[in-house]
Amino acid sequence: MENYSSNNIATPKVCIILVNYLGWQDTIECMQSLLNLTYTNWQAIIVDNNSPNNSYNQLKDWANTSLSSESSSFLTEDELQLKEESYESKFLFIKANKNQGFAAGNNIALKYLLQLREFEYIWLLNNDTTVAPDSLSAYISSASKKSNVGIWGAKLLYYHKPDIIQAIGGSFNKKLFTTKHIGENLSDAKVSEFQFEEIDYVVGASMLVSKKFVEHVGLMDENYFLYFEELDWATRASKHGYKLSYVDSCRIYHKEGQSIGSNSNGNEKSDLADYHGIKSKIYFIRKHYPEYKLRLYILVLTSVILRLARLKFKRAAVIFKLLYQTV
């Protein structure tokens, strides 16, 4: 049952961006959870990254059977680029010309939104998530009180273990060039009131930003096909004087890794995830910490040796070639 409120100046309008690649079933489940949000002044843009498995048509079929005709619109990327006014439909489905990665998929929607006046906030949400009904209300309540925060994170909980935290943010080790989820595998009940002092980045599964933030800091860097795009955005945000934070009462349930072939508990990366994780790390360090080039070379070479030790010969060869080409 659809229950949409009209625009209200007391409740700023939010655009929710989902990027779909192959995972139309997850995307549909995510959209269904959006329909239960208690905060109703939102619109969703779903960008299908040219999935080869008929995802876009599956999403259209869902919209045509689950929504009223005025609640959904369908465009190609080229058609969207020609639009200068907004669509009134609750869900706007965009078919990208090609798959250029997570950042590029989000940027298709962000470029469109920068032309429009009515949106104050933008929620970048992974398609393999479901959201608590009060999650967007919690986001906007916090964001309206602290204008110096550039990116807001959420409390990410494992979809299959909803009482266990996946992350409330991330930390970045500048010596080892490693990232770590803060709060990972802790019981939600035991740490719900715990205040984490600092985070180095907001985990990309759920990021709330203001339109002004995007205008100031810029779009996501499309050189990251997968991984490190949120750390790059956070690093650029810090350079522009913004802080990072998360909303403890904003709960998002994340399946993690569905569309890239990794398992749902994150213990085993797919070949695709492993490759892009290393490639994006190399690019990030060279962009933001060029003085550490030698250290980066040593650490990546160590990762090759570790994969050889685990008999991951194909992965080791691919990473070594990447190291040779990039560093």
UniProtKB/TrEMBL annotation:
InterPro entries: Glyco_trans_2-like, Nucleotide-diphossugar_trans. Keywords: Glycosyltransferase, Transferase. It comes from the Bacteria. Residues 15-164 form the Glycosyltransferase 2-like domain. One of its GO terms (molecular function) is glycosyltransferase activity. PANTHER family: GALACTOFURANOSYLTRANSFERASE GLFT2, RHAMNOSYLTRANSFERASE WBBL. Belongs to the glycosyltransferase 2 family. This is Glycosyltransferase family 2 protein. It comes from Pontibacter cellulosilyticus.
